[in-house]
Amino acid sequence: MNPYLALVIGFVAGVVICGVLVVKLMPGMMIVKKKSLLGFEETVNRLEQSVKDNGWVAKEVWHLNQSMAKHNVEFKPRVSLVKLCKPQYAKEVLTTDRHISCLMPCTMAVWEDDHGGVWFSEMNMALMAKLFGGNIARVMGGAVVAEEKQMLKGIIED
């Protein structure tokens, strides 16, 4: 076989394999999911308080079940979203990257599984920061990740 043809086939096969791996693995890497150490209400309340205690603004807590019920949609396992922001970080990011505003404010979710277990989930800020690079990586991948870790101490399993 021609060595150049073998090189091209090897390169194409490598690209295809990498593409398949990214498609299969990336969705599971984009969301951080951790078991809560607390009950549902206590998790939501402690999370909201921890956000404030760490100098962030808990913009709102959205109880999805209640919101759906207003539209005659019943859903039993509880799901609540804590919307949070730290204005100085928002300004730092928006100064250079306003397109990222569609991901603001940050959202942390507390939810029950079908067996009553309580879970926490959010976007993987460290990975998101790396994917965007530049100023977003500096702000979101540095201070935001560190402060979120502090906020979650005593609430979720490590």
Helix content: 40-55%
Low-pLDDT ranges = none
**What is the 3D form?**
globular
- The secondary structure category is alpha+beta
Structural write-up:
The protein is an alpha+beta fold and 158 residues long. The protein is built from 6 helices and 5 strands, in the order αβαβαβαββαα. The protein has helices at residues 3-30, 40-53, 64-69, 87-96, 125-132, 134-151; strands at residues 31-35, 57-63, 79-85, 106-112, 118-123. Strands 1-5-4-3-2 form a 5-stranded antiparallel sheet. α5 (125-132) packs antiparallel against α6 (134-151). The chain is globular. It starts with a helix and ends in a 7-residue tail after the last helix. The relative contact order is 0.17. The mean pLDDT is 91.
